[in-house]
């Protein structure tokens, strides 16, 4: 049986690292929003949309729709999917930016994940990681405590489980995420 797992969280907590590590197994496929084809164009697109937070939110919603359709095809082929961000982030960031359109309704038909895991990290450690990799303009928003808290509050309401990765190295982060995944599998596996 194939499963659709989503990793959510603020930038710098290790989502991409964990998702990529989990998908080293050929049974799992790594996807992200925006998808790999749009990643190199994302900055140009969001800049081209100007200051319209609604237009930017709709762009990200479109990437969720596209990657959700891609995930559905893979699941039909019997391949499990690990997604680096999905609808919860799109909605949480849009709400924190003051977007008033109903993205829940817009994304109501996208495939639902079997499990959504929120990865968190001590804020000082997260900021240290951001500084090491180079803080982007989008990262700057989450350095503002009020914005960060709005995003995290919304993510916590939309995720099934939260894993605090404070002090974890890459191996430990993957291990704890796999523990949650295995706990999910053990309660959702069909009896033989």
Write a concise synopsis of the structure shown.
With 192 residues, the protein is an alpha/beta fold. Helices cover 54% and strands 13% of the residues. The protein is globular.
Structural class: alpha/beta
Number of contiguous helices:
9
Q: Would you list the SSEs in sequence order as H and E?
A: EHEHHEHHEHHHEH
Approximate shape:
globular
C-alpha-based Rg, rounded:
16 Å
First-to-last CA distance: 12 Å
**Main beta-sheet strand count, sense and barrel state:** 5 strands, parallel
Count all strands and give the number.
Answer: 5
Keywords:
192 residues; alpha/beta; globular
Mind explaining what this structure looks like?
Helix content is about 55%, strand content about 15%. It is an alpha/beta fold. Strands 2-3-1-4-5 form a five-stranded parallel beta sheet, sandwiched between helices. The model has no long low-confidence stretch (mean pLDDT about 90).
Describe the secondary-structure layout.
Blueprint: E1 4-8, H1 15-22, E2 28-32, H2 42-48, H3 53-76, E3 80-84, H4 87-96, H5 103-106, E4 115-120, H6 123-133, H7 137-142, H8 145-158, E5 161-164, H9 170-188
Helix pairs in contact: 1-9, 3-4, 4-8
């Amino acid at each position: 049986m194939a499963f659709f797992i989503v990793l959510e969280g603020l930038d710098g907590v290790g989502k991409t690292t964990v998702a990529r590590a989990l998908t080293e197994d050929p049974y799992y496929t790594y996807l992200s929003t925006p998808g790999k084809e749009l990643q190199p164009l994302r900055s140009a697109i969001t800049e081209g949309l100007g200051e319209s937070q609604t237009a930017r939110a709709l762009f990200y919603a479109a990437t969720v729709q596209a990657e959700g359709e891609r995930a559905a095809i893979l699941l039909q082929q019997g391949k499990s999917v690990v997604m680096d961000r999905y609808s919860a982030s799109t909605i949480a960031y849009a709400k924190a930016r003051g977007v008033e359109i109903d993205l829940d309704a817009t994304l109501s038909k996208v495939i639902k994940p079997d499990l959504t895991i929120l990865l968190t990290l001590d804020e000082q450690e997260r900021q240290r990681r951001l500084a090491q990799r180079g803080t982007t303009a989008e990262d700057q928003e989450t350095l503002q405590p009020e914005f960060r808290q709005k995003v995290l509050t919304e993510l916590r309401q939309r995720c099934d489980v939260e894993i605090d990765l404070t002090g974890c190295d890459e191996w430990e982060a993957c291990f704890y995420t796999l523990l949650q995944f295995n706990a999910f599998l053990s309660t959702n596996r069909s009896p033989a």
